[in-house]
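Final paragraph of the annual report: two paired records, presented back to back.
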Amino acid sequence: MKKKILFMLSSMNIGGVEKSFLSLLSTIEKEKYEITLLLLEKKGEFLSFVPDWVTVKEASWFITIKPVILQSPYKTVCEYFINWNLHRIPGFIITYFISEKLDDRYLYYEHVMKNVPPESTKYDLAIAYQGPTDIIDFYISNKVQAAKKISWIHFDVSKHQINKKLYKKLYGKFHDLVVVSDEARQQLVQLIPSAEGKTRIVPNIINDELIIEMSKEAIIFDPKYKGLKILTVGRLSEEKGQDLAVRVLSKLRENGFNVRWYCIGEGKYREKLESLIKEFGIEENFILLGSKTNPYPYMAQADIYVQTSRHEGYCLTLAEAKCLDKPIVTTNFIGAFEQIIDGENGYIVDLNEDEIYSAIKLFIENKEIRDNLSKVLSKKKQKREQPQFSV
């Protein structure tokens, strides 16, 4: 009899967590496990990549919860009044202010989700895969019946603002807390000491052969440009640091370097980046390519891969760039030191424009350094650790 496993994510939009989930699926034997994927919203470009043997469901209740969580409490109260849901107003207001006063979001989520029906199926294993995400962790811990529950933590909790009282209570209901790097584990335990005995490290799964094969797809990547191409992949957001990339490229161009910088990814930060690009007058040389379901041909054809993130958990794109033997410059976020040996298979720099500029300048001026880094990566392809489920 197959073991039943439930994974829960917000959607299948293009992103590192979603990509790592697909890679993880490729390691699971479908003959042994019955997999269900529960999405808050059944959407996203990666949805078509989910294997047909996986059952995909949408959380129908989320449509009523979403506005309450995302909008201001004032707007929620106004909507209750307009829709004549007057009986909901006192409880909501009281719970909200008590939660704020005690700095305990658990009380708030308990109230907001009290009418959310529990999951009807009982599972052997239930995984909140997009941790820490309040609503997903709360739903798995409180509304799902499972012999074992796991919260899979992809982010640096020291940078990702979470309510400590909420997560102390939530994590108390999980059997295991999976983190993607040792540094991420240390930050989690420092923030929530009671989590220490439950944590285990499972690095993100990378399918090297698939990435290399997908990188061979024929694309048109600025063929007329003869200078060096820098690539960054990631959601357009402040935490990914593309604004630093804009400033660094401006300085590189001012100093006469024939280089262009390309960003793959989409997000709410696009408008600000476009404004910044225009401000520095580098519209022709800093190019936002948008999201790509297959970024690997661009990565393969780039000369240098740069990660400008302010914080990460593990950073899947670094592992992918390594897989394709790219010379790498990365900022020193959590997890970087577990993938890059500074000076041997890439360069790790402090999170500032001058450091990033200096490392890229060194790469541009010294093709030998770039070639040596690529050779080291080519010789030392790492075997990825496969997760073992204890069901």
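The closing record of the year follows.
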Amino acid sequence: MVLSFIFFNLGIAAIIAAVKYTVGANAYGYKAMGDLFVFLFFGIVGVVGCYFLFSKSLGNHVFFLAIAIGCMSTAVLNLNNMRDRIQDAKVQKNTLAVVLGAKNVKKYHSVLIISALVSALVYLFASQAKPLYYCALIAFIPLLINMFKVFKNEDPALLDPELKKIALSTFVFALLLFVTSFF
């Protein structure tokens, strides 16, 4: 009963967070807080919550997986905000990309991807994963290539195709972990 109450409220909080991202006078997406909420809800709450629902336990290693997925999801939002940074600044939509500026937001993007990779590796080591699980790291190849492309990029419009690569890499990483768990 208590768990049902907790997860119901987490679901309500996620819905409220999704709406408050852009709606209302205090929309946090326009106050450089979107990255934090994406990290929390797509990473920590989503991954740890699902893990707990299925296993009825919390292994310390699951938080590393949550950090990896959270960083990858945040990288998608960050890249979208990098692409729109100039226009957002004109209309006073203060995303983290606007606040950090062109040079620092690229460094931040690299930190997100490297943090995701390191967290994924720690998760695999800490959980004593079978060797086959390491196949999921293949999903980081396009992410690392993306990181270098973003760093060299000078035209925000050219970041559009990179968005899909990050989103798909995040999905493929999660899918490969799921599929390899059956072997």
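The chain has seven helices and no strands. This concludes the annual technical report; the extension proposal builds directly on these records.
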